[in-house]
Amino acid sequence: MDKLTARPGAHMEAELLSQPEVWARAIEQARSESLAPAPGERVAVVGCGTSWFMAQAYAAARETAGLGVTDAFAASEAFLGEARGYDRVVAITRSGTTTEVIELLERTKGVLPGIAILGDPHTAVGSLADSVVALPYADEVSVVQTRFATTALAYLLTTIGVDLSTAVEDAREAVATPAPEDLLEAEQFTFVGRNWTVGLANEAALKMREAVQGWTEAYPAMEYRHGPISIAAPGRVTWMFGEAPSGLANEVERTGALFVHSRRHPLAELARVHRVTLDRARQRGLDPDLPRNLTRSVILSN
């Protein structure tokens, strides 16, 4: 057996550890290309699963930066009719074969210009898009997605002027540090964020569900106190991405739950969740390269 595949999660481990270097490559690529939506364009960003959550993060960051109306949709639930007035659709998909994304681009072909962010550009989505951001060096073998998602987001954030040099440096330490005992043994995780990091929180929760089969939830940080905090308790974790709302740490700590909040860049903090997820999966005898009930791409039959 190949040494790389001899250990459960070997592909996920190699891919998540490579994130800092792969982000740096995508940042340079973004600076050298002119494929992203232009300032002022009204943009719809679509994806499925992890890609949808990266769409949420980019949409919030772009609109907050004053670059134009930007909405994120699950590809299966996208409203792209004339009444919305979109100038462009951006589709994020690692495989380029996801049924819902293909069907959406088939409907909008020749009507709404499309940009595809792809791990494999030689696919159906690549042929349907008007332009392609090709990130083959970020493609993955593991079913559980890590580096393609974060690399696509690094590319997109760079196109709107976000400096990710801190994120790259923070991620080097984040992915290399094994999970501590309290995170390995925690019963439940809730991830929270604000503005563009809400998408990161949603993705972190999905990652833990996929790889660890764990009880995870995600919310906007200010909404967390409107009910979800009721599940906080000893042995459980509330993990914050980005700047925490005033008083939230104290409120969580009063429940006995662990409040995780670091000074790392939020994108690096997501990479940290990837490492914790891998360590928790292995402790439970699970293989995140081949998670239960999942495949690398969702291709629906008629």
**Which CATH C-level class of the largest domain is it?**
Alpha Beta
Strand content: 5-15%
Mean pLDDT: 93
Distance between the termini: 38 Å
Q: What is the strand arrangement across the widest sheet?
A: 2-1-3-4-5
Major sheet size, sense and barrel closure:
5 strands, parallel
Count of alpha and pi helical runs? 11
* The named CATH superfamily of the largest domain: Glucose-6-phosphate isomerase like protein, domain 1
Total strands: the figure is 9
- CATH-derived architecture of the largest domain: 3-Layer(aba) Sandwich
- Radius of gyration from the alpha-carbon trace, in angstroms: 19 Å
Please identify the oligomeric state.
Answer: single chain
Fold and architecture overview:
With 302 residues, the chain is α/β, with parallel strands linked by helices. The protein folds into two domains: 3-163, Glucose-6-phosphate isomerase like protein, domain 1 (Rossmann fold), CATH 3.40.50.10490; 166-283, Rossmann fold, CATH 3.40.50.10490. It is 41% helix and 15% strand. It has helices at residues 10-17, 19-32, 50-64, 99-108, 124-128, 147-159, 165-176, 181-185, 197-212, 248-254, 266-283, and strands at 43-47, 70-74, 88-93, 114-118, 131-134, 188-193, 215-220, 236-240, 258-260. A five-stranded parallel sheet has the order 2-1-3-4-5, sandwiched between helices. Helix 2 packs parallel to helix 6 (147-159), helix 7 packs parallel to helix 11 (266-283) and helix 9 (197-212) packs parallel to helix 11 (266-283). The mean pLDDT is 93.
